[in-house]
Amino acid sequence: MTTNTNQEMRLLIEKNISQHGHHISLVTGGDATPRFAYTIGLFPNVGAELVFAGASFYSTQSLHIVINKVADVLSSGVDWQGIVIDIGALGCFSLQGVHRSWTNMLLLGALDYYNSEIVGLQIVPDKVHTTIDVPNLSLAFNPVSEPVWGWLSEPWEFLVPENSIAITNLLALQGKKITEVMRWEEGEWELFAGYGPDVSREDFRKIPLGTLLAVDKSLHAITKLDVGKGLWRRDGETEWHIWESRKKEKK
Q1: What is the pLDDT confidence band of residue 251, given thresholds at 50, 70 and 90?
Q2: Using CA atoms in the order 65, 170, 83, 118, what is the torsion angle rounded to 10 degrees?
Q3: Which residues neighbour 14 within 8 Å (Cβ) at sequence distance 6 or greater?
Q4: What gap in Å lies between CA 110 and CA 37, rounded to an integer?
Q5: How far apart are CA 63 and CA 59, in angstroms?
Q6: How confident is the model over 41-63, as pLDDT tens digits?
Q7: Alpha-carbon distance 86 to 110, whole Å?
Q8: Contact of 145 with 12, CB cutoff 8 Å
Q9: How far apart are CA 152 and CA 34, in angstroms?
Q10: Average pLDDT of the segment spanning 237-245
Q11: Higher pLDDT, 30 or 221
């Protein structure tokens, strides 16, 4: 960013801190790394900044609601250790400390704002709302144990664009095996667990393709698909079939 842009961003951060007690920085990437968000402004009074990593179950609007609610609770002076924050239909959330290795990679804006080391607290959704892109930030960063986040340090190994997008469903994001794939554009895909037409639009999520490739090596074969082509497999299978066979079977 240019100096003017940096100054404008700092003014926006300070305005939000003054009006709301904190600023929320949303990082959507543009590459294979999942979305994450963190606060700036809580550290002087609360002793930590919040980070909400992955959690693709939630829309951007819901993500802001969760962060604001947790920030309000912490600002009231309660001890974060062992606390469970109930946010109704959005679920229950706990907090855990963030290892410095993650802080130094994810909370760059906060580090730059304070120009010093800070403490991070991860917002952790309950089991029902947990998805495969929610890392354990309390442990040192390790691309092997957190493959979805491995793109922060590991080179992109596929011929498809690194910023490829996947339209997928919640079942897939909660660990269910993907059974249908279509490549509609050079960098846009649909990958569903279950029969695609049965997936409700409310269950659709848009995430980096790299998230799914990182957790299931059997998906690596789909990166060789031509645009407009698709594959399918039955649940429990590893072998892929061309999409025409799937359409004939459904008739």
Answers
A1: very low
A2: -70
A3: none
A4: 11
A5: 6
A6: 999 999 999 999 999 999 999 99
A7: 27
A8: no
A9: 10
A10: 81
A11: 221
- Domain coordinates of the chain in residue numbers? 3-151, 161-250
* Contact assessment for residue 169 and residue 192, using Cβ atoms and an 8 Å cutoff: yes
Longest dimension (CA), the chain: 63
Contact indicator for 166, 191 with CB cutoff of 8 Å: yes
All residues at 6 or more sequence positions from 102 whose CB lies less than 8 Å from its CB, including other chains: 51, 120, 135, 137, 141
Closest CA to 196 of 207, 175, 181: 181
Q: Is 142 exposed, middle or buried (0-12, 13-18, 19+ CB in 10 A)?
A: middle
Rounded to whole angstroms, the Cα distance separating 65 from 87 reads 9
Q: Which residue has the tokens 């920085």?
A: 25
The tokens describing 53, both together, are 């990593």
Q: How buried is residue 87: exposed, middle or buried, by Cβ count under 10 Å (0-12/13-18/19+)?
A: middle
